[in-house]
TrEMBL record, chain A:
Residues 92-304 form the ABC transmembrane type-1 domain. Keywords: Cell inner membrane, Cell membrane, Membrane, Phosphate transport, Transmembrane, Transmembrane helix, Transport. It is found in: Cell inner membrane; Cell membrane. GO terms for cellular component: plasma membrane. This is Phosphate transport system permease protein. It comes from Methylotenera oryzisoli.
Automatic annotation (TrEMBL), chain B:
This is Phosphate transport system permease protein PstA. Pfam families: BPD_transp_1. It is a multi-pass membrane protein. The keyword Transmembrane applies. The chain crosses the membrane at residues 28-54, 74-107, 128-148, 154-172, 226-243, 280-303. GO terms for cellular component: plasma membrane.
């Protein structure tokens, strides 16, 4: 018995150990690959950390020089002038005005499009329209800037002759058209997630399509629709090229869309186009502006995310 | 028929019929409004495209527009350096974003355990997708241009756009991987494959179409991005070509182009557009046609491919 095992061991050991060693390299290889893949996935975390790190680091230099209360309450933003003033409010007002105009366009049109696509359109219409919306969403923003400055503004000037060449109205309208696809497709997803039985219940009671869409599907999908609006707002706030081209670059504390005014993004572009020395207060000011922009969009994205989570749990 | 209760019923019936009629009319009216709202996007896309062609056709048709450098005179200014610059920047973007994005997606779908760490990565990916593009420009300005001292070069621009489209590639790859049935993986495991063998021989191969779609959509977005490139300070007059990546003598590859100054199509369009002279607007329109054509073709191809794949694959 004992000798038999020994014989067996002796004859098989090289094979077993060869197999085991192969097994070992196999395991090692698997481990190494998993580690490399994890590093790749970690790049997303590193990018976020780098964005926040750079914004905070450069803004820190800015806020050593400018007090936070001046930054938040002063009504003039002229960091590049002889007598610099650092109030972010004019940039925020420009951003909010453009976003407001954009929402006035995108929310009704986007919502109606979504209701139509989800509740009324035939399969064929939906299959044709959705790719077109996707194409529209893929058009580069610089081209929309051209459109705002050299098509929409002249068109508006025919109706309103006193409209200046640079104004927030035309950029707002164009940004509104740009975010229609986002609002429409996200809202449509939310409406399609409403269970069929709810629609059938409504039809069984004799409701028409329109009544079902407005009184049953829309209320049931409301948190998804609101999330779509919030993500649309976040897009509009971060939009850069259209406003940099068509809205003018003078910071201007106004909520009148007929005026020219700079947004946060337009200011960053304007400064970056000039040749500001690294480390100067003007250079740091674009990071402070960027930090405000990042905080605004991040807050909206988190709220949108939470709202959407809430609705997906319901069914 | 003459007794009062029958009259009463008739009257009620008439009322009901009128109500049904009214509600059907509402349905009809809404479907017309819905169609009109859907048309807004399509009409804008068409108007934009036709407007660009009308304004830019004198330039579009002349061959010298594609072979000339930018110039102080509108008539002789061309796109050559922008075409070459865009191609080289896209090359860097592709090389930096695609492998990392695909590997990250594989990790998240196939390897990541359910814990806080994986959640952290997921939250970061979805958050990065919603960060405004100009913020990536600020990151690149602070990190690539100054801290890593890469300057306003092709490699800076390529890496910036790479970071920008990383979430797009990750999300598309994940969706594609997720659609592969678990049975395929189980079959491979059953014959003794390791995890990596399953991933490499099956998961990647079957999700290739979906990955490609995502990559094309991401690259189309990167080609049209303007704001982050302007932010790194690349809006300069470039009337030269970067050194050629391929040389005639050994080692046949040359990496000097990576640190060369550059311009890309949307930047060139922006610089023409921001000049007051009308003559340059013709150039801007022509450049706009090129940009929009490239992005429409890429997006159209990707959307079509995805549609075909959905139709053909039946697991």
């Amino acid at each position: 018995m004992n000798t038999a095992t020994q014989v067996l061991n002796k004859s098989l050991t090289p094979q077993i150990s060869a197999r085991l060693s192969k097994n070992f390299t196999r395991h090692l290889k698997e481990r190494v690959i998993e580690f490399i893949l994890m590093l790749a996935a970690l790049s997303a975390v590193l990018t976020t950390a780098a964005i926040i790190g750079i914004l905070l680091y450069e803004s820190y230099g800015f806020f050593e020089y400018v007090s936070l209360s001046d930054f938040l309450t002063d009504t003039v933003w002229t960091p590049l002038f002889e007598n610099p003033r650092y109030g972010i409010l004019p940039l925020v007002s420009g951003t909010l005005t453009v976003t407001g105009v954009a929402l006035l366009i995108a929310v009704p049109i986007g919502t109606i499009s979504a209701i139509y696509l989800s509740e009324f359109a035939s399969h064929r219409v939906r299959e044709t329209v959705k790719p077109v919306l996707e194409l529209l969403a893929g058009v580069p923003t610089i081209v929309f800037g051209f459109f705002a400055l050299l098509f929409i503004t002249p068109l508006l000037q025919k109706i309103m002759p006193e409209l200046p060449t640079f104004n927030m109205l035309s950029s707002g309208i164009v940004i509104g058209i740009m975010i229609i696809p986002y609002i429409a497709s996200l809202s449509e997803d939310a409406m399609r997630a409403v269970p069929m039985s709810m629609r059938e219940g409504s039809y069984a009671m004799g409701a028409t399509r329109f009544q079902t869409a407005i009184r049953v599907v829309t209320p049931a999908a409301v948190s998804g629709i609101v999330a779509a609006y919030i993500l649309g707002i976040s897009r509009a706030i971060g939009e850069t090229m259209v406003v940099a081209i068509a809205a003018g670059q003078q910071p201007n504390l106004t909520f009148n869309p007929m005026d020219a005014a700079a947004t946060i993004t337009a200011y960053i572009v304007q400064v970056a186009m000039g040749d500001l020395p690294h480390g100067s207060i003007g250079y740091q000011s674009i990071f402070a502006a960027g930090l405000v922009l990042m905080l605004m969009t991040l807050t909206l994205n988190i709220i949108g995310h939470i709202t959407r989570k809430k609705y997906s749990e319901r069914y | 028929m003459n007794n009062p209760s029958a009259n009463h019923i008739n009257k009620n019936l008439d009322e009901v019929r009128a109500m049904i009629h009214r509600h059907k009319l509402n349905d009809y009216i809404f479907s017309i409004i819905g169609l009109l709202c859907l048309m807004v996007g399509l009409v804008t896309l068409l108007t934009l495209f036709i407007d660009l062609i009308i304004q830019g056709y004198p330039k579009l048709l002349s061959l010298s527009f594609y072979t000339d450098f930018p110039s102080r005179r509108a008539a002789s200014a061309g796109l050559l350096s922008a075409l070459v610059g865009s191609s080289l920047v896209m090359l860097v973007t592709f090389i930096s974003a695609v492998p990392v994005g695909v590997m990250a997606a594989i990790y998240l779908e196939e390897y990541a355990p359910k814990n806080w760490f994986s959640d952290l990565i997921e939250i970061n990916v979805s958050n990065l997708a919603a960060v405004p593009s100009i913020i990536y420009g600020l990151l690149a300005l602070g990190l690539f241009v100054y801290i890593l001292d890469l300057g306003q070069s092709i490699v800076t621009a390529g890496l910036t756009l790479g970071l920008l489209i990383l979430p797009v590639v990750i999300v598309a790859t994940r969706e594609s991987i997720r659609s592969i049935p678990i049975a395929i993986r189980e079959a491979a495991y059953a014959v003794g494959a390791t995890k990596w063998q399953v991933v490499y021989d099956h998961v990647i191969k079957y999700s290739f179409g979906g990955i490609l779609t995502g990559v094309i959509i991401g690259m189309a977005r990167a080609i049209g991005e303007t704001a982050p490139i302007i932010t790194i300070g690349a809006l300069t007059f470039i009337a030269f070509l970067p050194p050629s990546p391929v040389t005639t003598s050994a080692p046949f590859l040359n990496f000097e182009w990576l640190s060369s100054g550059f311009t890309v199509l949307p930047i060139q369009m922006f610089s023409w557009l921001s000049r007051p002279s009308e003559a340059f607007h013709v150039n801007a329109a022509a450049a706009g046609v090129i940009i929009i054509l490239v992005t429409l073709i890429m997006n159209g191809f990707a959307i079509r491919m995805r549609y075909k794949m959905r139709k053909n694959i039946k697991w």
